Amino acid sequence: QKEVEQNSGPLSVPEGAIASLNCTYSDRVSQSFFWYRQYSGKSPELIMSIYSNGDKEDGRFTAQLNKASQYVSLLIRDSQPSDSATYLCAFRFNTGNQFYFGTGTSLTVIP
Amino acid sequence: EPEVTQTPSHQVTQMGQEVILRCVPISNHLYFYWYRQILGQKVEFLVSFYNNEISEKSEIFDDQFSVERPDGSNFTLKIRSTKLEDSAMYFCASSEARGRFGTEAFFGQGTRLTVV
User: Fold this and answer.
1) I need a labelling partner for A4 at 20 to 30 A (CA). Which of A67, B14, B36, B65 fits?
2) At B1, is the pLDDT very low, low, confident or very high (cuts 50, 70, 90)?
3) Contacts of residue A43 in chain B, CB cutoff 8 Å?
4) How many inter-chain contacts (A to B, CB under 8 Å) are there?
5) Structure confidence at residue B102 as a pLDDT band (50, 70, 90)
6) Is the peptide bond before B8 cis (omega within 30 degrees of 0)?
């Protein structure tokens, strides 16, 4: 069974703080990992992809992958009220087409 | 910026009727997907499509569902006889490739299907 587990939250952080979102996955051979942001009633919007162990930074966002621990996280630095959304973790096998999504973590950034 | 476009944005249909949801994937992308999201639940995979055929499908994608690429740009999802439980947001997505790189999927804005 291929599962992606996320803490549903809600997670609240003050504006300017670091928000930390976590995700664990059940399958050791998962290869590609993604973070999407979804505003209420809208479609998932790709934030970052990560394929190798370690950190990947893009602006205020840092994704961290640890395949041995089957763990991927997203850090949002200098959180803004506009970051308030649900963050979806997803993974995909290189040999398949399907993206497996978690249920998402709801983040609220308090002004 | 290239984007996936979906029409209509909202579709209301009576139970038992057929609906066709339409999508125009990003032009240089080769893999196309349909996902759905029931209100308050997670995004669920329905089907992927490559080289004019289904490459993978989920248990949700039963005989009442079909997909088609009728021309060089459109990608459609047909639900033959809608049920109340088909009410959901349906997302089309596309990606450039299946391999290690370029695997990101980009989503359209969705079609909200309401079956009454």
Assistant:
1) B65
2) confident
3) 89, 91, 107-110
4) 62
5) low
6) yes
